[in-house]
Specification:
The protein is 32% helix and 22% strand. With 752 residues, the protein is α+β, with helices and mostly antiparallel strands. α12 packs antiparallel against α16 (441-463), α12 (354-395) crosses α17 (465-482) and α13 (397-406) packs antiparallel against α14 (410-418). The relative contact order is 0.07. Belongs to the type II topoisomerase GyrA/ParC subunit family. ParC type 1 subfamily.
């Protein structure tokens, strides 16, 4: 029998909504929920909802410090079922982080079993691990049963959960927080609780104190993994004032002497949030790539404590320089951002400074104090009322018993007979018979007296703001004593130091192994390096239509200077040039050389030399080599030329006389002192031309005479006497060169 097709019901009404509006509305709702309920911590207790729910769930399971541990699976299940309707793994991961002493400065969860390690290994599954709260968590929850904070309905309305915890511990800054929301993020490093309490006590005394004043106590972050913070005091002050900045944290190391003058470096603390195994892998990788020439080997000898051994390449290496090269290339130095983006009053995301952060915490402690005092006041008033009833019942016990035995409705009768309130009558009727023997007048009167004294104290606190702050101060003082510098948990772990100043050139050199290489440049401008100093380049292969341009010897640590037709000098690192068997890569890949410009010369930068640079129009000047070094890919403009004019020649200044030859094959010799020395410019005219321009230039010593090479590579020379007819002054036209001068119009001199 065929299926009967039921026509779909017509929807009652269809609404047209512009897609943009619908998306904006929904995305805004998502963004707000991420900011409020997932990524940003509350400024008052320093917790995100998941952590708050975990702690409250543990509180309901009575997992106080010192009690028996309970399975993590039970805790995660209860938290997920009652408060946090998200993935079980997400809840367990959050709980694990609260228990890891290398992730949390003051762990809130006391874990038993495998909770992961600093190598980045995963914790055991939640069916194998157990947990309970720590003293810090107990402090955060203290007063929650005394109406210390507001409660709200949980996600399904079946029970209630706290909006915020009473937070009797400066958790926001002490444990820090990391989070990425929509369009905003937070990153708060951990701090020392005792220092925060000292700063808070100062803030109670001087409520208008600025963040800068609080730095007297809060020196900077205090990471669970220790390390050394190498930022300047100004940078730290700036970060805490604005709420944004970063901290450079380095590993702690020491030199350990071995036999016969050998030594190793032992790293005992690594920066916060760095996985040890990944760090060692990275160093090993750099060693393979020969990027750490001062380091011989690295190995991990850690047990409970961190112990990483770094061996130098040789015992003559400077340990500080070796570590500097590691700090620059690996996570042994880490930048930890500070972005104090928190939820103020649990609602408004805002980037705050240190003072405002502590201010929020203190204001919250005062609110909790007032709520707890009011709760206790109501309790005492209720008890005093009950005690008044008990006293009347005690003094008239027989009559009370008679009324209860004989009357159908004893409550109104009792109230009428003894002028009792409903509360008192109810308390008398609910009293157990065994309590009768305890009803002694003295006891009732003593309890009444004590309660009245306590009530007086509470009323005094509620009536005076000064008293309230005094109480908050006492509370903060107790926390300070619990986590003081002499306690194992409270002792500062991160120390401060200035980063050592090292010679930058020495550091640069420390990154590259010094080996001889031959730099080969093809006619079309492709560059490569070959290992060793290779004399015979006849076997080299080039791309089609390309051939050997020129080659020279260098070392892997050398810097090259390239002079281009646009009059600019460019710097290249030999270490970054392609090696191997290929054809290399175009020089343009390493520098920003304009399309219309081409290389004139390439040579090793030695420093301290002088060059004579000249343009096609025959203008030039002497420039110092150190003025030619540019730091950017864009190069450094030295010889000013406008198209179609271009830079044409460069020669090293080795002597006192200049020889210049033009494309018209006319040569001129004149004294070098007629050419000025400049750092940049057009220069002065070296030779005058009717047509064409400058072809080449050379500087030589008058005593030794001028030398040149012909096309076959044979060397010729001429003394000043023989050059008499070519001698003149700068900007003369010159005359045809001596016999045997090469047709190429080049002197054949190459810069070494």
């Amino acid at each position: 029998m065929g299926k009967r097709i039921v026509p779909p019901e017509e929807p009652a009404e269809i609404h047209d909504v512009p897609l943009r509006e619908a998306l904006e509305e929904r995305y805004l709702a998502y963004a707000l929920s991420t900011i409020m309920h997932r990524a940003l911590p509350d400024a008052r207790d320093g917790l995100k909802p998941v952590h708050r729910r975990i702690l409250y769930g543990m509180r309901l399971l009575r997992l106080d410090p010192g009690t028996a541990f309970k399975k993590s699976a039970k805790i995660v299940g209860d938290v997920m079922g009652s408060f946090h309707p998200h993935g079980d793994q997400a809840i367990y991961d959050a709980m694990v982080r609260l228990a890891q002493d290398f992730s949390s400065r003051y762990p809130l969860v006391d874990g038993q079993g495998n909770f992961g390690n600093i190598d980045g290994d995963n914790p055991a599954a939640y069916r194998y691990t157990e947990a309970r709260m720590t003293d810090v968590a107990r402090l955060l929850l203290e007063g929650i049963d005394e109406d210390g904070v507001e409660f709200r309905a949980n996600y399904d309305g079946q029970s209630k959960e706290p909006v915020v915890l009473p937070g009797g511990f400066p958790n926001l800054l002490a444990n820090g927080a990391q989070g990425i929301a929509v369009g905003m993020a937070t990153s708060i490093p951990p701090h020392n609780a005792a220092e925060l309490c000292d700063a808070a006590l100062h803030l109670i005394e001087k409520p208008d104190a600025k963040s800068k004043a609080l730095l007297k106590w809060v020196k900077g972050p205090d990471f669970p993994t220790g390390g050394i913070c190498v930022d300047s005091k100004q940078a730290i002050a700036e970060a805490y004032t604005t709420g944004r900045g970063s901290f450079r944290v380095r590993a702690r190391w020491e030199q350990e002497e071995g036999a016969r003058g050998t030594w190793v470096v032992v790293v005992t603390e690594i920066p916060f949030l760095v996985q040890k195994s990944r760090l060692i892998e990275k160093v090993a990788e750099l060693l393979d790539q020969k990027k750490l020439p001062l380091v011989g080997d690295i190995r991990d000898e850690s047990a409970e404590d961190v112990r990483i051994i770094i061996e130098p390449k040789s015992k003559n290496v400077d340990p500080a320089l070796m570590m500097e090269s590691l700090f620059r290339l690996t996570e042994l130095e880490n930048k930890i951002p500070l972005n104090l983006n928190v939820l103020i009053k649990g609602r408004i995301p805002k980037v705050v400074g240190l003072a405002e952060c502590l201010r929020e915490w203190l204001d919250h402690l005062r609110d909790v104090l007032i709520r707890r005092s009011n709760y206790r006041k109501a309790q005492i008033e209720h008890r005093l009322e009950v005690l008044g009833g008990f006293l009347i019942a005690y003094l008239n016990i027989d009559k009370v018993i008679k009324i209860i035995r004989t009357e159908d409705e004893p409550k109104p009768e009792l109230m009428k007979a003894f002028k009792l309130t409903e509360v008192q009558a109810e308390a008398i009727l609910n009293m157990r018979l065994r309590s009768l023997r305890k009803l002694e007048e003295m006891e009732i009167r003593t309890e009444d007296k004590n309660l009245r004294a306590e009530l007086k104290g509470i009323n005094a606190v509620l009536a005076s703001e000064t008293e309230q702050w005094k109480k908050v101060g006492e509370q903060v003082g107790k926390v300070r004593d619990m986590f003081g510098p002499k306690t194992p948990l409270g002792k500062r772990r991160t120390t401060f130091a200035d980063a050592p100043e090292h010679d930058l050139a020495a550091i640069e050199e420390a990154f590259v192994e010094r080996e001889p290489v031959t730099v080969v440049v093809s006619d079309k401008g492709w560059i490569r390096t070959m290992k060793g100093h290779v004399e015979d380049l006849s076997g080299l292969a080039f791309k089609q239509d390309d051939k050997l341009g020129f080659a020279f010897f260098a070392e892997t640590t050398s810097k090259l200077l390239l002079f281009a037709t646009n009059g600019k000098f460019y710097s290249l690192d030999v270490a970054k040039l392609p090696g191997g068997r290929g054809h290399g890569e175009p020089i343009r890949l390493f520098i920003d050389l304009e399309q219309e410009a081409a290389p004139v010369a390439l040579f090793v930068h030695k420093g301290g030399r002088k060059f004579l640079v000249a343009s096609h129009e025959g203008q030039g000047f002497v420039v110092n080599e150190d003025d030619c070094v540019g730091t950017t890919k864009k190069g450094k403009q030295v010889l000013n030329v406008d198209m179609p004019n271009e830079a044409r020649a460069i020669t090293e200044v080795l002597g006192d006389t200049v020889a210049v030859i033009g494309e018209n094959r006319k040569m001129l010799v004149f004294p070098l002192d007629q050419v000025p020395e400049m750092a940049r410019g057009r220069g002065v005219r070296l030779q005058k031309y009717k047509d064409g321009g400058l072809s080449d230039v050379a500087v030589f010593d008058a005593k030794a005479g001028l030398t040149w090479k012909d096309s076959a590579g044979r060397e010729f020379s001429a003394t000043m006497k023989e050059l008499a007819e070519w001698q003149g002054t700068r900007a003369d036209a010159g005359r045809l060169p001596p016999k045997g001068f090469p047709k190429s119009n080049k002197f054949g001199k190459v810069i070494g």
